[in-house]
Amino acid sequence: MNFSKFQNQARLYVIGALEAEELEEFEKARTKFGKKGEEFITKCYALHEAFALSLRPAKSSAAIKERLMAMVREKKES
Amino acid sequence: MERTKLIASTRRKPKKRVRLAKSRARPLTAAPQLEPGAPSDLDLMQGIQAGDSEALSQLYDRYNGILKALILRVIHNEAEADDLLQEIFMEIWNQAKNFSAQKGKPLGWMVTLARRRAIDGLRKKQAYQRAEERLKNETEQQPDAWVHNATEEEIVLSDTRSLIRKVIRGLPPPQQQAIDLAFFKGMSQREIAAKTNTPLGTVKTRLELGLKKIYDGLKELKDEL
Predict the structure, then answer these.
(1) Interface of B with A in 166-195 (CB under 8 A)
(2) Which of A35, A46, B63, B65 has its CA 20 to 30 A from that of A58?
(3) Residues B62-98: pLDDT tens digits?
(4) Least CB–CB distance from A42: residue in B103, B148, B208
(5) Residue B68: Cβ within 10 Å count
């Protein structure tokens, strides 16, 4: 696998869209490209942020945050 | 509206262990812009790692809207989305020690975590069939409904978000649909092929081309900002 194909596969990998047989090949290439490959994969995770930011933010009730913070306080005290 | 909430949240006086934001190189995608002096996402994550619940409170105020939108996009159920949102922020609190700034930014880590939990939730709660039915209807009636045309609400959003939406809207609808099904529904290429009655090779090409265009668009966006 050349680096250009690795880049295409990496973008599919970060969104979990590689098929099992592709995943095996991708992992081999990942080892082959080492640090350069890992750096590219890290960059690809920016796609996750972009997809989330592309959505219109949704409202949630204040009660959710109150419950969350109560659970955190409880956990800290235990 | 979200921006107003964000500004309000960042005006709170941060605790001492939450360091003030420093100017840094612009990341590939930018989170909503912060008030000068507001703690950065990384500052807040470090605060959470140190056990500061106020840091979690601020991070929640900053991103609950985005994460809930992501969860809703996956499970399409308001009550379940609220429950999951709470669970996800609790997981952020519990798993913060596993976050490493070297491997990415806090928002990316949170989105990855939220997406995984939402897709797991979708499957575990056996809502999959119902969601599939809804998805089938959406697929047939509104295949490119991921991003909508700009509304008044969107106009007040940051330029970053508008530009990201512009990049996605610029994709041909079949590419948008393939990425939407893979990212927000956790579908494999084969599942997408079956769902859309499209050859597997075509699905793969759509995903590869669409993701490359978005990735390249984000790089250009970084240069513009």
Answers:
(1) 167-168, 179, 182-184, 186-190
(2) A46
(3) 999 999 999 999 998 899 999 999 999 999 999 999 9
(4) B103
(5) 23
Rounded to whole angstroms, how far apart are CA atoms A49 and A65?
A: 22
User: Taking a C-beta distance cutoff of 8 angstroms, is the pair B42, B197 a contact?
Assistant: no
Residues 15 through 34 of chain A touching chain B, CB cutoff 8 Å: 15-17, 19
CB within 8 Å: B66 and A57:
yes
The vertex-B124 CA angle with B123 and B126, nearest 5°, equals 70
Sequence-distant (6+) residues with CB within 8 A of B98 are none
| Residue (of B82, B11, B92, B81) closest to A63 by Cα position | B82
User: B11 vs A39, B39, B59, CA distance in Å?
Assistant: 35, 10, 13
What pTM, to 2 d.p., does this model score? 0.76
**Is B84 at the interface with chain A, CB within 8 A?**
no
**A6 vs B contacts (CB less than 8 Å):** none
CA of A28 vs chain B CAs: smallest distance (Å):
20
Q: Minimal CA–CA distance to B65: which of B89, B47, B43?
A: B89
Paired tokens of A31: 């080892």
| The pLDDT value given to residue B153 | 45
Cα separation, A12 vs A23, in Å, equals 10
Structure token pair of residue B203: 């699905």
Tell me, what's the ipTM?
A: 0.88
- State whether A52 and B186 contact (CB < 8 Å): no
Stated length of chain B: 225
Residue B106 burial (CB count, 10 A): 24
